[in-house]
Every structure is written in structure tokens, then in C-alpha cells.
Amino acid sequence: VNVDVKLGVNKFNVDEENPHIVLKDDIDPAQFDILMKACPAGLYKKDEKGQYLFDYAGCLECGTCRVLCGETILKKWEYPCGTLGIEFRYG
Ligand code: SF4
To answer: Could you read off the pLDDT tens digit of each residue along the chain, which spans 91 residues?
Structure first.
């Protein structure tokens, strides 16, 4: 069973109004490249024009981006409120 299948069994209760991770406006390209490789959910991406894309909705709350790049790229990193965020289901 590959990782995508395992991740697919998790459930997300996304807080649409209050993102728990917010990136800085001025993104350091080198730091972003690190997170493109390091985020286990693959949430740090670039489009075909090289624009930065980030979607907090699929976050696994692992903290990797926070540990690796912290305030150099993140304006905010918090756990989602209450019952929001990921609900792990080990499949
Ligand atoms: Fe990706 Fe983990 Fe950061 Fe969430 S906490 S954005 S899953 S590296």
C-alpha cells in the first residue's frame, strides 16, 4: 500500500475561516524549495509559472515545516482549534 492510499483514509475537518498555517508574503525561494521536498503531505507546490502554492487544508500537523524553516517562511503555525484539522485513521 503506498503513502497516498494511507493518507487517503484520514479525515479532515477544515477550518475554512481560520487557517492554522499562514506563509509570509515575502517567501524565501530556497526555504520554499526545502519544504516542497520535506512536507509529507506535499502541500508546498509551484504552478507552471513558478508561483508559490500552499493549501493548509491537507496538513498532517506534523510540524516539519515549522521545525525546518520556522519564522523564515511562516507567519503563523498553530494547531487547528478544537476538533478541527486532521483525524488520523490508520488504514
Ligand atoms: Fe506539511 Fe507537516 Fe507543515 Fe502540515 S505541518 S504543512 S503536513 S510539513
So the answer is: 788 888 889 999 999 999 999 999 999 999 999 999 999 999 999 999 999 999 999 999 999 999 999 999 999 999 999 899 999 987 5
Phi and psi at residue 13, to the nearest 5°: -115, 90
Whole-number Å distance, alpha carbon 20 to ligand 1 midpoint, is: 11
Answer yes or no: is the ipTM higher than 0.90. Answer: yes
- Residues framing ligand 1 (Cβ under 6 A): 21, 39-41, 43, 59-65
DSSP designation for 79: P
Residue from 37, 61, 79 whose mutation best tests the ligand 1 pocket (most atoms within 8 A of CB): 61
CATH topology of domain 3-87: Alpha-Beta Plaits (3.30.70)
Pairing mode, strands 52-54 and 85-87 = unpaired
